[in-house]
Amino acid sequence: MAPRTRPAPDSPNNGSSGKQGRSEARERLLSTASRLFYREGIRAVGVERILAEAPATRATFYRHFPSKEDLVVAYLHGVDADMRAGVRAAIETAPAPEDALRAIGAAVADSLTSPEFRGCAFLKAAAEYPDPDDQVRRVILDHRAWYTTTLTELFAQVFGNSPRRGKPEHAARHFVMMRDGAMSGAHLDGVDSVGDAFRRGVEGLLTLLH
């Protein structure tokens, strides 16, 4: 989904804490960077560009973010927080686990139609940070592990003890694969057709594998 440009919640991983972490300057820097990173690419946007558009001084920037990579990590933590909140809301409001999965899938399909949509923020970041030991890459992998685990748990509830029970982890990875494809191909193959195909794919996982 197209990430919002609100700041990430304060955490031990986002490079700031306390009053400093909640400062207006930090929020402005992170909001500006998030918008530019998602729209234009992380490595294409330099610190000077962020400072000019925030606006902020270099001293202010480095007081809140010791490096550009710390800013990138905070950006991705913000996207992750938004996605977790959306998935949590889908689970809490759905009458059954299959409805939660449909709601999660619908959110993916709906995000493709947003005018601000430029693909998956994590897939885009992964293409720019291929080193598995990079802290940005670790944030990406942690996010995907959470997403896949959450889907696996939901599919396990859907499949239950059905004699046609599939493997929940396989269904979850199939869901993620379809989501990745939809996020990557929507602007190439047509938003409406890709969104419809994704919805059908989710329904197929729910009806054909148990």
UniProtKB/TrEMBL annotation:
Pfam families: TetR_N (PF00440). The keyword Nucleus does not apply. Residues 23-83 form the HTH tetR-type domain. Residues 11-20 have a biased composition (Polar residues). Keywords: DNA-binding, Transcription, Transcription regulation. GO terms for molecular function: DNA binding. Residues 1-26 are annotated as: Disordered. InterPro entries: Homeodomain-like_sf, HTH_TetR, Tet_transcr_reg_TetR-rel_C_sf. This is TetR/AcrR family transcriptional regulator.
